[in-house]
Amino acid sequence: MDVRDIALAGANALTSDDFQGRAYPIVGPDVLTGEDCARAWSEALGRKIAYGGNDLEAWEQQARQMLPAWMAWDFRIMYAMFHEGGFAGTEEDMEATLEIVGQAPRSFADFTREVAAGW
Fold it and tell me: FRET partner for 38 with CA separation of 20 to 30 A, picked from 32, 47, 67, 112?
């Protein structure tokens, strides 16, 4: 989710009575894995970018230095699901996002192209 879209959602929620007392999911248009993100950066930069992988066991061990063991394990299980299938919002989530953002959310590919153009 592009931070500019999150900012639009926040601004709209704070300046309009239309959104009072309601909760809104904020989801982007893409279901992305690490490989997908590397591919988008490769295309934007015109050179090969490789995804480093999912060593979630190493991540969990490092996280245990800052989090309770049960929480590090829980995050590891959740992250494994995200790594395998991305993190998808439902059609209803996307409709709600469109309502609160006020426009179609920017794609990750658009984001990478814009950032790469500024480098």
Answer: 67
